[in-house]
Amino acid sequence: MRNKQTGEQANGQTDMPKLYVALTHYPVVNKKGNVIASALTNLDLHDISRAAKTYGLKSFFVVTPLEDQKELAERIISHWTDGFGGVYNPHRRNALELIRIRDSLSAVYEEVAAEEKSYPVTVATCARKYPTSISYKEFRAMLDSGKPYVLILGTAWGLAEEFISEADYVLEPIAGNSDYNHLSVRSAAAIIFDRLLGKK
Amino acid sequence: MRNKQTGEQANGQTDMPKLYVALTHYPVVNKKGNVIASALTNLDLHDISRAAKTYGLKSFFVVTPLEDQKELAERIISHWTDGFGGVYNPHRRNALELIRIRDSLSAVYEEVAAEEKSYPVTVATCARKYPTSISYKEFRAMLDSGKPYVLILGTAWGLAEEFISEADYVLEPIAGNSDYNHLSVRSAAAIIFDRLLGKK
């Protein structure tokens, strides 16, 4: 039996997909393919949190091991959640409250596992196809299982190869209708959420 | 008869949709509903041009009547098209080359009409529904007609009412799967292009 107000079932389960997103700043590659830790981009936090809130994601993890970058992220968020910004524009506050800043993807997985009482299935994103690639339709159907999922987005020139191959699945690349495929991570996140969770 | 290389038909017509996008900085409304000219956002130019290039749009018009804002836009674009940036990252150059900076929407319509030998159909975007609202499916089918279309995006708190009511159609709002609907214009543009032009 479901509570119409909250969407929660009597057993405490909800029928909303349990999708988390993690924006990763390490380990990613630079233009030359070298593994680096990338710098935070202010608008990644704003745009991806607003899209995540619009599509009902459970949380938006920002992953960086760098202390100064974590402080920067905290400052941006608290301006809009605690400070003047939260009063001026509550819509931004509601979105940015989804963000959790963490050191590593493994810390993210452990946290989701503890919260959901189930280890999350991990899905990496990449501009190339892999043997473990799944389509949007397949991923959309998988989300109906009720299992928790972590969608991993990379910054800079993308996730380091080791992290892609360690993920349970890789989501197929977004194909537009040209040979050009260089979307920003903000645009890619919005399109992926819409394809996975948008109303049909 | 169609040339497979270029997609052009023998009569010079192409079967690619003729979709143009215009990002409007005037007249838009601020939080209080007053009509203003909004300031340019650097990442709007980058993100929307990259998404427009990915989805095969014909051009990306940036509309502002303010001289200093036009100069700012020119500087951003030329850094990536003529300067060091164009050599360092040709993908950005290819995308930013789609941008044309113009004073007004009427200047945009006249230019498209001259180029296409047909006055464009105009489609505004808004977070509310209108009597002239069309669905994504309807707009997608209309693009197959071969007519030129201008999709109008607003900045700040959205397009001024007069411009929405003057458009031929209004595109239905993007519904995520929550009550929250405050996407950035960059995210909204990416989702709209994907819904209208993404491969099915």
Provide the descriptors you would attach to this structure in a database record:
alpha/beta, homodimer, two-stranded antiparallel ribbon, 200 residues
What does this protein structure show overall?
Two copies of one chain form a homodimer. Helices cover 40% and strands 18% of the residues of chain A. The first copy, chain A, has helices at residues 42-54, 67-81, 84-88, 90-96, 105-116, 136-143, 161-166, 185-197; strands spanning 18-24, 28-29, 35-36, 59-63, 99-102, 121-125, 133-134, 148-154, 169-171. Chain A has 200 residues and is α/β, with parallel strands linked by helices. In chain A, a hairpin with a 5-residue loop joins strand 2 and strand 3 (35-36). In chain A, the strands form two sheets. Chain A has a seven-stranded parallel sheet with strand order 5-4-1-8-6-9-7, sandwiched between helices. Chain A is globular and about 50 Å long. The interface between A and B is large, with 38 and 38 residues.
SSE diagram, text form:
2 copies of one chain form a homodimer.
Chain A (H helix, E strand, L loop, with lengths): L17 E7 L3 E2 L5 E2 L5 H13 L4 E5 L3 H15 L2 H5 L1 H7 L2 E4 L2 H12 L4 E5 L7 E2 L1 H8 L4 E7 L6 H6 L2 E3 L13 H13 L3
Helix pairs in contact in A: 1-4, 1-8, 6-8
Provide a brief overview of the structure.
By secondary structure, chain A is an alpha/beta fold. Chain A contains 8 helices and 9 strands.
Write down the secondary-structure element order of chain A: EEEHEHHHEHEEHEHEH
Multimeric state of these chains?
Answer: homodimer
Helix content of chain A: 25-40%
Q: What spatial form of chain A do the alpha-carbon principal axes imply?
A: globular
Give the distance, in angstroms, between the N- and C-terminal Cα atoms of chain A.
Answer: 24 Å
> How many distinct beta strands of chain A?
9
Q: Outline the low-pLDDT stretches of chain A.
A: 1-13
Q: Quote the average pLDDT of chain A.
A: 89
The most extensive contact between chains is: A-B, 38 and 38 residues
Largest pleated sheet of chain A: 7 strands, parallel
- What value does the Rg of chain A take, in angstroms? 17 Å
* Strand order of the biggest β-sheet of chain A: 5-4-1-8-6-9-7
Number of H- or I-type helical stretches of chain A: 8
Strand content of chain A: 15-25%
Main structural class of chain A: alpha/beta
